[in-house]
Amino acid sequence: MSIVTLPDRSLKPKNLPPSSRLLNLPPELLLQVLSWLDPPSFSIVLHVCKSIRDHASSSRTLLLHQINKVPGSTKTLNPQESTIRLLSRFHRRATRHLQHGIEVNTDLKFWTTQEHTINQRQSTLHLCPCLQNDHLWIAEIDQKEPRVRVYSSKSGCAPQLLKVLSPHTMMSMYTSPHEKPEIFFKVLMVAFTPSPNPEKCCDKVSVLYSYELQPTLINCFIEQAIFDAQFRFKLTTYDLGQYPVMPDGPNVYSIEGRGRYPTALITPNMFTAIITWKDADNSNQISTVEYHLHKRLKADGSKLNPMIPTTADGIDLACEERINEEHVAFLAMSEEGEDPPYPFTAVSSMKQFDNSINIYHPKSPVPFWRIPEAVIQYGWRVESIDHLPSECELRESNGEFTGKNVGLPIASHHEHRIFQHEHDPKTFDCMNKMLHLAVRVTKRSSCTITRPYLVTALEVVEDCSKIYLGWNLDHLEHRIVAELHGMDFDALSTLGIISTVAHSGRRIAMTSWNRVFIWAVNPRAFIDGRKSFGDNHEILKTETEYRANQSTWGHSYYENCLEDGVVVLNAVELPSAGVVYSLEFQSDNVLWAWTDRGLVQWKFDRFCSARRQTEVLGQCRHTDMSGPKPAGSVTCTTQELTDEFKQMKRSSLEDVEMGRLELEPNKTEHCDGEFELWFEAMEMENCESAES
């Protein structure tokens, strides 16, 4: 019996109905659909579709509706403004609050190196305290040589190689030119030292080395040196000035580290180095090494090897500085008698904040310990930083609690003579307010839950004295004003949380493994009365009325972000660029990181358009016009620079015609210094043409 196979009808072509396109809808219905989009989606649609942009540019009602969805003050809006100005206002406000689709439009740039032995985990980023042109220092550690390459980056310019630090250069100044020391160094940590003048850039960099001796000649001196090298570290201070090393050689200090391993290094000034250690018993320890740069000691003859012109450990003792004093303190995870909220883990990092030292725990985005400025200079101690009380304690105190600074200070504000004194109507009191990034740690049966918050601190003064971020005041009254959502703090990797705050306080970035989250914050909305209370600011005349409305700080500005009476700020996740080891803001819209893929830069300003670039670190494309060029740097010609910025200006003018950008008279819009460089390039081109 034969089997008849019927043809498969699914293979026959079918006449599909025409697809309904969004642009085929009537304009009224299309505008109604666009009104339901959130600001990030609306920004992306305007960026990718010219037809929708034309429809949106003709509807004043739609633009006002989208502007009101973004946090901000509504008093500055004029419903009679032109649609072009309203569209420009929407872009500026959306960019300020990171609601312009940076999840898709962020520019991502990778800086690769020709070396394959770069230690990205120990390489560091440091924002210069001078804050001139958003100056960022970059330290790249090469473990093979070992070498430390120091780069300098300013806004609008690529990183430029300034120094190459090598311990072999240091040793060549004190050894015979025919002798090759058999010492193998390893770079452990790098720290930049701020200048005594806060207006100047960092002038020194410190490198912590461990070393191993493998000599061919063995005697009693060499054997003792080999044994001592297992427990000794070398802290070397290099100069970032004009010379490759200091005129009289780098300063070398021997640090005994028997039974402990360094976990973090910071140099708050040119005479102090603070090192945190992890002991063999898994306990945390911190020590401060104080030294003097101009006191030198003669070498001890008993430690010299008469067979070799250098000392037993390969570095002349005459170039070593005597450690004046070493203070050691153990980091207590909690008060005595209490269970620690976190397990005993080594310190993750240290950062200098307003001349104070903040010490971070791997599982907390805010500092866990703090060293005040005065304590560093005149005999120091380590103090713990409090966390937020539990929800039950806050509920009993009506949401307020009094104590010292909690978490990390972000911004401060002074309001001068804002209300009358309750007992003397002729006198007026001032008010100091501070905004903190704090966490609440809740310990459950088998886990620890961490949640970040924004907390305001209040202080009433009569003598018009201001408050500064580095102060530790015990009498401040605190209240939670906002919650940070969007990141899971309960499922973390072994690297923990790496956090950083922009210098302006308007950006907060946190990362866990390969995910980077950013929160946009306007500190003035929580601590400035005119922005915090909106139209009700003029009604608050007494201190009692002011404190009664403290729970509503920021509600007028963040009207669209309220949930259960609390401002909720959602995070924005940046495109992944690998496992993150260190993080630093160069400006509000430029973020740098060292990842397992190398040096990475995220840029999410108004002009970002999802560009992906890969460049070689050390070869800059833009000319640094701020000073002399380092030897060996690659720069482009003036004509190439002019052509590049001509193309950028031409694209910006196209944005003006399409309504995406508005350049108002007497007000220059800057894109991280790019327009400034373009104008300087044009002036250079005019000068060259005039001379020719």
From TrEMBL:
Pfam families: F-box-like. PROSITE patterns: FBOX. Gene3D superfamilies: 1.20.1280.50. InterPro entries: F-box-like_dom_sf, F-box_dom. Coiled coil: none annotated. Residues 19-67 form the F-box domain. This is F-box domain-containing protein. It comes from Patellaria atrata CBS 101060. The lineage of its organism: Eukaryota, Fungi, Dikarya, Ascomycota, Pezizomycotina.
